[in-house]
Structures are given as structure tokens and as C-alpha cells.
Amino acid sequence: MNGSKKLALGAAVVALAIGGSVAVSTASAGTRPAERAAPTTAAWAKVAANGQVLGSSGVSAVRRFGVGRYNIDVYGDLANCALLGTINTNGGTDPGPGSSSILVGKVSSNTLFIRTATPSAGGSAAVDSDRPFSITTICGA
Predict the structure, then answer these.
(1) What's the CA gap between 60 and 55, in Å, rounded?
(2) How far, CA to CA in Å, does 131 sit from each of 24, 49, 72?
(3) What are the angstrom distances between the C-alpha of 33 and each of 36, 58, 80, 85, 135?
(4) What is the DSSP string of 61-101?
(5) What global pTM score does this model have?
(6) Which residues is 60 bridged to in the sheet?
(7) Which residues are bridge partners to 7 per DSSP?
(8) Phi and psi of 10, rounded to 5°?
(9) pLDDT over 70 at 122, yes or no
(10) In this predicted model, what pLDDT tens digit does every residue of 66-102 receive, in sequence order?
């Protein structure tokens, strides 16, 4: 314990011993790191393989423009956002077992590019495939 804390503690004990009262503060004169705003979910969407929106918030449009390719417009700026995507089953409409992948990227300040694929598809199926998916953007200040 440093000298100033010992002195404050000693003064408090003396004040209590003679019937006084003591105000206690946990404030520190030291510097603290700046508080950061908690990240928020700016937009999310659950999308069927054909591009139909099954649920969303913060999304203004979803466009399927090719096999396994979609653009999603969101309200707000994506500059400080993490982009997350997952493949869904959406009530059993999933094409079946096998590996699958999703790529989520930013096209502009408010448009996402989504590419879904089934790399292990058998036969002559193309790697790109229409897959049901969900996306979420988590944005900081």
C-alpha cells in the first residue's frame, strides 16, 4: 500500500474511532483506457436458396444474380463491421450432405456480396450452388 492510501486509511480509522463519519471513494487519479462502445448487430438476414428473404433487420434488398451469387443492400455504412455468414437448412430445403461454403464480402459501403458453393457436389454439378444462408454484420463505433 502506498503512502497516500495508508494516510487516507489512517484518517478514516481515526474519524470512526471518535464518532465521525467517512466518505469513501473508489475514484483514482490514474489514467484508464477509454471506454469503447459495445458492438451492435447492424443488419442480419436469413435467405432461402432462391434469394427469398425469410427474415431480416437492417436489410433493404436481396438480389440473386447467378447460381450461388447474391447481393444484399443494408441500411447504414459497413466500414467498421465484421461480416459473418453461415449455410442453413431453412426447413429441410438444404440440397443434402457434403461440404458447403459461403463467402461474404463488401461490394460498397452498404452492399454485401454472398457466394455459396458445394465443393464436394457429386457428378457434373458446378461448385457454385444456390444454398440457403444467413448473414450478420457486427459493427463497432
Answers:
(1) 12
(2) 61, 4, 15
(3) 9, 32, 20, 32, 32
(4) EEEEEETTEEEEEESS--TTEEEEEEE--TTTTS--SS--E
(5) 0.66
(6) none
(7) none
(8) -60, -40
(9) no
(10) 999 999 999 989 988 999 999 887 566 555 556 678 8
Cell numbers representing residue 38 in the block: 459495445
Bridge-partner residues for 9, per DSSP? none
Sheet architecture: strand order including 133-139: 53-57, 40-47, 133-139, 81-87
Q: Are 72 and 62 in contact (CB under 8 A)?
A: yes
Angstrom distance (rounded) from CA 56 to CA 133: 12
3-class SS of residue 14: helix
- Comparing C-alpha atoms, which of 102, 97, 94, 107 is closest to residue 128? 102
